[in-house]
Amino acid sequence: MRKAVAEFLGTFTLVFFGCGSAVIAGPAIAGATTVGVLGIAFAFGLAIVAMAYAIGPISGCHVNPAVSLGALIAGRMSAGDFITYVIAQVAGAIIGALVLYVIMTGKASGWTGGMGANGWGAGYLGEYNTASALIFEIVATFIFVVVILGVTHKLALGHFAGLAIGLTLVMIHIVGINVTGVSVNPARSIGPALFAGGQALSQLWLFIVAPFIGAALAGFVFKAGILYGEDT
């Protein structure tokens, strides 16, 4: 139960503050103070850093079904825990998006219904095509999960794990916001898409499939001992 609560709270925080930075402080709303790509990137990364140190000792701070899948394949968690984590993560993302949605409905003008949802194609940020979006999400998730599994390895400097993971997410967002808005996390995509509707929902499949592919590949790298063999 504690692990589930921790994962719920962590994913709630990631979605509320990460997507909130794009919706409330991002450039989409006229008259608002804008933080731009760097500000949004750091909001997502700092949310992870904060939660890594707050709930990491309880659940490992996956706050991401793709991370949990990578850990499962790498042999670091059970199938039962995986299911529990995913349910808690998706629930946290939905409630985080709900709270953000309620706040935004109180804005007098300027909000067009955007929820920081992921997407691609005509009319979405850099207008990249499906292949670009799919490739980016697979590669970015692979790198992200490799970093997470690496810095949490028994040989790693564990005290700096949260900072390394958060800064990696910042790096990924700096490069990828204009491509897909950056998911690398199915839960993060599901929550906002449910309230944004339309194109966000129709394109949601990619932000579930691609992160799972990238995470599975990363998990296999560790399970096969390609980076850390039995001698380490």
TrEMBL record:
Gene3D superfamilies: Glycerol uptake facilitator protein (1.20.1080.10)
InterPro entries attached to this UniProt entry: Aquaporin-like (IPR023271), Aquaporin_transptr (IPR034294), MIP (IPR000425), MIP_CS (IPR022357)
Designated name of the protein: Aquaporin Z
Family per record: Belongs to the MIP/aquaporin (TC 1.A.8) family.
Keyword Transmembrane helix: yes
Lineage: Bacteria, Pseudomonadati, Pseudomonadota, Alphaproteobacteria, Hyphomicrobiales
Main localization category: membrane
Annotated membrane topology: Multi-pass membrane protein
Subcellular location: Cell membrane
Swiss-Prot/TrEMBL keywords: Cell membrane, Membrane, Transmembrane, Transmembrane helix, Transport
Keyword Cytoplasm: no
Segments traversing the membrane: 35-55, 82-104, 131-151, 163-184, 204-228
